[in-house]
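SUBJECT: A protein chain and its fold
Encoding: whole-number codes for local backbone shapes
RECORD BEGINS BELOW THIS LINE
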Amino acid sequence: MITRTVSKNPRTTRGDLVNDLQSAGTKVTKATISNTLRRQGLKSCSARHVPLLKPVHVQARLKFAREHLDDPEEDWENVIWDQDD
């Protein structure tokens, strides 16, 4: 159940898994969950902290967006690509 849950939703926390298992009547610790996932070949990772945009960058993005709001689609053909190709 643990591996299946994490495979379906990789952002599931160990605390969520402990609570799910406790509601199902099984008592486990976070360490047990970590050991089980590691044995199954799943590793934990933390999301990267990205610095927030500074106000000057927000204004520059907004200015760019406003300037190019009415550009024809042909102007963007070399910039934006379709992932279905």
